[in-house]
Here is the input.
Amino acid sequence: MKTININKVRQDFLNLTAKVNDRQLIYLDNAATTLKPKCVVDRVAHYYLYENANIHRGVHSLSEQGTIAYENTRETIRSFIKAKHSHEVIFTKGTTDSINLVASSLGRQILKAGDEILLSTMEHHSNIVPWQIIAGQTGAKIVEVPINDAGEICMDTYQSLLGPKTKIVSIVHISNTLGTINPIKEMIQKAHEHGALFHVDAAQSVAHMPVDVQELDCDFLSFSGHKILGPTGTGILYGKEDLLNSMPPYQGGGDMIDVVTLKQTTYNSLPHKFEAGTPNIAGFIALKDAIDYIIELGFESISNQEHELLEYATAKLGSIEGLTIIGNAANKSSVISFVMDGVHPHDIGTLLDKMGIAVRTGHHCTQPLMEHFKITGTVRASFSFYNTKEEIDELTNAINKVKEFI
Here is the structure.
């Protein structure tokens, strides 16, 4: 079984040497954003110190070098998600930006009054609000796909909701709050049987498991660079070539133009049609280093490490009296959300911070999910491959101290 040299890997993440409230930092908020390896930070700094130039527009050496490095990232991501063409990879600001692009551009093209958009109860707000906006503009209707008390999508109900009015289905691959891994391939197949298009919110999945867009046969897929060791302000939208070609631009200006006159503008070809304005050049150049880092470690070793952490943490936290884990799907990623009897999640998070432990508290941008479980929020501990069982022991001890204190 392939394993990670945890001591060597942790040396790449200098944040892990930080002190918080005079305690050694224990970072368990990876679902919000991952830490960045030194190679990624160094690449951003190197660009600004030695290579700074705008891309796609200049004939001088720095501009041409930057363009090559920037487009190399696109090819790396194409290979990483197994897309057929590099021009099917659109650079955005993040998952939220990607979903807004699809909802606006595709939605205003294909939706009309009475059409239906299927979303699940566990969706992140970023995969709800853009669809609500376009539904309001077109007269389409949002249809909720329910979940069970384990935090799993009710597949029988999902299939029954699909029909001739279903035009778009947009479902999260892995829940940021529950860690549930949805049967996304099966869901895509069922949607296609009814002629619906399928968008995958892969913000939480690409850092934990291999994603093959051709095998999934998804129509669109979105994720963020900052959740996969990369810089903030970087995101990816994958779309099938024919669909992207048929969609109108989302924003105007910059690289998305072909010819501009005051009377009429023609648009650039893919992928540039959807990439208006000067992008986060340094961020996307460094995103390649983040993806390369993941590839070098390998998903087998990442999965093994994170699965061990999940099982260990589930057992340790589950043994604490008065603590209830929210979300117990049979197929789950390395996220544990929990509540404690008589203690508000924010109070737990604040006290854990005093002990140097970073967790997330609140509704995690999944308020419909909180409503389903009849709670206002949870404490969420989310693990990455650079976390250790010793850190989980510290978390367990700290929670017991919180209980004693309160």
The longest helix spans residues 61-81. The chain has a mean pLDDT of 96. Residues 6-30+298-405 form a domain with the Aspartate Aminotransferase, domain 1 fold (CATH 3.90.1150.10).
